[in-house]
């Protein structure tokens, strides 16, 4: 049995849904179909999820929602009419959209979660109707009926482990089950969503729960590429990669497959196949627990992300002071801030953060509290900071990767602010200036893939 | 005014002491002479400090000390007789040696400290007598009279800051003051020593206290070399280096000048000149607060040390867990263990320790406690671990150093277990296997100095 997930662009129109239908029909192992909300049909189009966010905001602010409701309904109507779905099946969908403001919500975060979740929820109902209309033995399965229960965080829920046992009851299905991605219900029956792009997560949870043989994740690219295709023309496609490689590349910005979706896949040892709805015959990229080393291409992927900043501090005899690192980390913990890395010299320490966690105010507070606790000789934040990752299982136990990488970067006059190798055997991490990031990625790509 | 310190080999015999006398006579600014205990006269000889340690152990175990007492006395007698020092000046020295066991000691650690300290104490008295005999206006100055008070740790004392004010009273001296290195007294008047090789520390403390213009540190090499001379024939001498460079190189094993002696030198901004007693006309090495960058030689020194071990741990989603690093560091702090570095990957963390802090028992405890606290997927210690340091102020803001270093190491097939650059701007740190360490140092030397 296979779990198969379609992204928003695969479900953006009746034309796209026709391709989805053909893909599902082509393999009778494809029993669990996870659907996103309809995405963009063309450049400049608006995703249904974004329309729903607008609808929620206007509702909260008691503004006129006529236009946005109309726009949302039209998206579903276009798809339904394209497959001649009967009006009595479409009307309840339209009514649900219109009635969203009339439900009771604990607060606006729950309201927002429910509005957003309906992009997927109604699309799954519509897709089930289209499948039935096209002669498939299909039905809509709500996350509640599937047994998926999540933590009570309306916009960043986590699956509760007992859900897997509930999902296992759906393991031997004759029917095709169409399940909405992105959301489930907390223990009080309220809708909570995963983080954005969370349909991937639903797919991985279902795949683990029903012990699927494969989790096919259909999107709009032929494969995951070794490097961002906006930087390099026709970059090398990754035919297979390990979960660890995917995770390290996600860290620095690879976003084809949702980082959090890797967790259930790893836990259930479910191989993931990223494929293209528009080009289903392409083999795509397999993400799995292990793979054969590739002696010709030690590097699997290269990524960079500018969403980091660093806190530098210098204090004489820093490395002789027991408890100094702990004092700093306790301060961070007090403010609920996780750090990414903490390279240290003899008398120096740099702490690298995900920038999204910080505000100018919070940075000032941290500098003040750390200064009071450890009396550094120097302390300051730096924001012009990108992390560049070179990732590959085949780098393990190889000599010379650092030499090639550092030389390629030096040849392009790229200054290394930080180099971190050693914790992970399958990656090297460089800290560079934001302005150098794109050039650095291309330089490394040319070195390791050409 | 200059503070001038002589190491053990410079004071090992009357022949050596003659050189010391000439050096002191050659410059009337040399007013504060810090002396070590007599060192080795030839390969296979025993230092007086080691004889005193033997003497202390035999005393503690109530063994016969006749031979060792005789051996110690002969060392001082040879020097005294070489300069025709009157017997009535030598007799009290010999008597003090014989009477060491008859004093009262709080415990054996204080006994050991007092025995060891007398290597310097009696040598300073003897050197003062020799200087007087040779017509110099010199006198012995005991650390107690100098006002040096230290913390109550018999074998690893630290200077108490108020000592500097006391020392300042000796700032304008007409006489040459001969001061024993290595020890001072705690607040109860008990002898406590600095860590081994601590005469350098005494010299730096005195230099800071009297606001010396220069601290000349005489030893038995012409200069500090860019690399260990046992690995490379006639290596480049370092003509000048900064305190930070010295400190980073000391960290990985450069031992010509005692690491702890840098603290008072830095605090008092006292330039240190490492010189050779056997070749005093050589300019030696200047260690100072700043220096001009050298565009031709970005690297100042290369060192390696095998006294490290590492604890590796892997845990899925490690970087998302707030407080995980703090939990680990709290456990280390409970056991009074300081860590050196903590490079982290996405799901991996390595902690590097000074191996001397650990025992197999303690390692087991740490693994057990960390496992209980954070449930890692994998955790283990590695002992085959050397740290290789490439240090140079002129590396600051230079592109291409990592490239050259990594390529030189790769060309010699040396595997990099860890690379750490970024906290300090003036050094790059590599983790390599012990077996590769010597070859790695030579490879880097050839790259940056040939």
Quickly list its features.
homodimer, 450 residues, alpha/beta, Carbamate kinase, VC0802-like, 2 domains, eight-stranded mixed beta sheet, five-stranded antiparallel beta sheet, 37% helix
The low-confidence parts of chain A are none
Report the sheet with the most strands of chain A, covering strand number, pairing sense and barrel closure.
Answer: 8 strands, mixed
For this structure, the quaternary state is homodimer
Q: Can you tell me the CATH architecture of the largest domain in chain A?
A: 3-Layer(aba) Sandwich
Number of helices of chain A: 14
Q: What is the distance, rounded to the nearest whole angstrom, between the alpha carbons of the first and last residues of chain A? A: 39 Å
Strand content of chain A: 15-25%
Radius of gyration of chain A, taken over Cα atoms and rounded to an integer in Å: 24 Å
CATH level-3 fold name of the largest domain in chain A: Carbamate kinase
Could you tell me the mean pLDDT of chain A?
94
* Global structural class of chain A: alpha/beta
Spatial arrangement of strands, main beta sheet of chain A: 3-4-2-1-7-11-12-10
Number of domains of chain A: 2
Most extensive interface: A-B, 63 and 63 residues
Keywords (chains A, B): Amino-acid biosynthesis, ATP-binding, Diaminopimelate biosynthesis, Kinase, Lysine biosynthesis, Nucleotide-binding, Transferase
Protein name (chains A, B): Aspartokinase
Binding site for ATP (chains A, B): 219-220, 225
GO cellular component, one term (chains A, B): cytosol
